[in-house]
Each structure stands twice: as structure tokens, then as C-alpha cells.
Sequence to fold (292 residues):
Amino acid sequence: MENSAATDPAETPADALATRIADDIAEAVREDRLELPGFPEAVLRVQRTIQSPDASADDVVRVLSSEPALAARALQIANSVQFRRAGAEVTDLRTAVSRLGFNLVRSIAVAHAIQQLRLRETYSQAARRELEAIWRSSIDVAAASYVIAKHCARVNPDQALLAGLLHVLGRLYIVMRAEGIGGASDTALAEAANAHQGEVGKIILSCWGLPETLQHAVEHQDDLQYAGDSIGLTDVLIAAKHLALRDSEYEREGADECSTIERIAAAGEAHPADVLAQHADELRALTRSFTD
Fold:
């Protein structure tokens, strides 16, 4: 994201907003304090704890225990159809954390935070609309990523689920930071978010110490013509986002032409769109895991 102190007479409101946010991000990164505005403190503590190389399951459990709603959510998802598998019912947080793993716990915390944000009535109408769309996008793309990875790409499904859940972080940061700045129109907010969500998301994941493969996928989530050396996490996220959101308000001109989807189909035994249709029950079960 480029920024400049000079004023460009041709700069649009979306450009001005993006420049302001870019300056804020650069300062936050320099000061090692890049965090998502408006997030519940318990969720931020989960992130900080997991980011530590010395973090243990007990450390994560202590943080989760400080937020009953988040702890209950982790237990609920650990016992859901998709994650319980053949294991016994989980009744304690430590077992839930062990079953889910740190990355999924992080995703659950982020999803919980977005859900809490979207329920607040103090934000502008533009921000509330964006937050609602972000919430639905995170869940829908995560479920689609999991199913595509599992059934037609040689990619770890749990990692794909994580990518789907976290792909919205850049857009979320832009929306919440714009809300703090104030004065952004619906159009400027949407344009700034669409243009910079990938790169801002990458910065957040980098600051969180997440793997480069995940950072790369989030950064290139809107590159419909992406062509890597082999089918990987980036391809799966691009295909899942395109297919899951093709009928949403975020569909943009030319979005029907996604060569990445065809690359996945050519490299495997099934087309991603057909796989999503064939495994609709699995998609619904995954979605319910995070929304019920």
C-alpha cells in the first residue's frame, strides 16, 4: 500500500482514505502495536499468547477462561460434527485446545470478535453493513476452502479453513480504522477495502507470525488469474472466495473469468464448483459449526 504526504489533486476519497490508513499501519508496524481496532480485549490476549513462541496449551486455556462466551464457543466447535470426528465429547477447555490446535483457536477467537463487532449498534450504517458482509464472507469462504482442499486439491483442509476464516482481516482492519477516522462515504470505504484488503491482511498475518504460505494466500486472494508453480493454498483460497461470493455484492466486473479455478480442475479429478455442489451437506455442517 503506497502512501505519500503530498496531496494529489486527482486523489479520490477512496485514495485519501487508503493513504491515511496506510500511514496508520506503517506507524503501528514501526511501533510493534498493529492490532485490530475494536476487538474485545480477551481476543487480543488470545492472539498475543499464541504469538509467543513459548506459549503452552495451559496459557491459552487461561486466556480463554477469562471470556466465558469465547470459551463456550471453543468447546462448542471442538464438539461439532466436523471437529469431533471419532473422539469423545470434550468437556474441558484444555482438551478442546489440544483437539483444535492453536491456529484454529485463533480463528475461533477472530470469528467471535467479528460477531461481537457486528452486533454493536454504535457504528455507522456503512460500517455495520460491511461488518455483516465480512462475517458472512469469513464463514462461507472458510467452509468452501475446506471442502475444495479436501476433495479436489492436495492441500491440508484445516489450513485451508484457517485461510478462509482469516482472509477478511485486511478488510476488517480498513473498515474499523475508517470508522475511527470518521467521515468515509460508503463508496470510499468499499473501494478502499476492495483495493487493499489483501496487502493489509498480509501485514496483519505477518505481524502475528503466521506462515508465509498463509500470508501469500491472503495477499493474493483476489488474483483471479493467479498461476503458481503447483496447486496450493493460494489457489484454493482464490477459488473458494470466487465461488462462495460470486452472487454477493462484492462480485466485480470480469469476476466470472477465474483461471485459477480451471487450473485446479485440470490438475485434479473434479471441478471445484462441482465439488461444492456434491458436498453441500458438508458445507452446511461447517457453516453451522461457526454460526449456531
Q: What stands out?
A: The first helix runs from residue 13 to 30. Residues 3-7, 249-255 have pLDDT under 50 and may be disordered. The radius of gyration is 19 Å.
